[in-house]
Amino acid sequence: MKERTNTLKAALQQGRPSIGLWCSLASALTTEIMAGSGAGWLLIDGEHSPNDLRSVIAQLQVIAAFPCEGAVRLPSDDSVLIKQFMDAGARSLMIPNVKTAEQARAIVSAMSYAPEGVRGFSVGHRANQFGRIADYHRNARANQLLAVQIECETGVANAREIAAVEGVDVLFVGPGDMSTNMNAMGNPNAGHVQQAIAAVHEAAVAAGKASGILAPVKADADRYLRDGFTMVAVGADLGLLARGSDNLVASFSA
Known about the structure:
Blueprint: H1 7-13, E1 18-23, H2 28-35, E2 41-45, H3 53-63, E3 69-73, H4 79-87, E4 92-95, H5 101-111, H6 136-139, E5 145-150, H7 153-157, H8 159-163, E6 170-173, H9 175-181, H10 191-206, E7 210-214, H11 218-227, E8 231-236, H12 237-250
Parallel strand pairs: 1-2, 1-8, 2-3, 3-4, 4-5, 5-6, 6-7, 7-8
Helix pairs in contact: 2-3, 4-5
């Protein structure tokens, strides 16, 4: 048995944009609905959503029936969490609030088996189809993707060094935290925040890496795509349900 190709990683390596959606409701059923949308990837959020290991596994299982990649955002860069979720089948990871190249190297190490890294070894788990994928451990890194989130001025200042770390695939801007940390809460389009976002993109390009961002407003997403961002999230299940139900009920109001 062979491991399924990571189509998101392949697209980004070829410089092709890939549109994604956020999954925040911790429901395999809603994630299954999102997976049928035609999105190139879905991000299962474990930082700001009530997801745990079991709910993430259930969502990865339903995503696998569709031609899109299931990525998982962990709540932190904890190496134990990285090991557990990778063994559970999360091979595309997003790690929040990465500030330094040293931190990025530690994350890559946590994702990698010895001698390159410190990922704990288990003969059979969900990631290698319970022992059915031949040479999984030797070749595991080939289908892994790491997106590190740049969300503060320190991360921006170190973006070029972070992007240069082997094993980092994407510099992904967190516009909410970025604007908050730069004293412009809720306004990622503030001039100085936009300059920081552009600097992250330029750092990624200089290192031959992809850049990504969450942009639920279509005009913003279109602009970032024109600027060369390729891993672009354009909405979330929570927002789509909330705004859709709001708009529907409002359409019947006097």
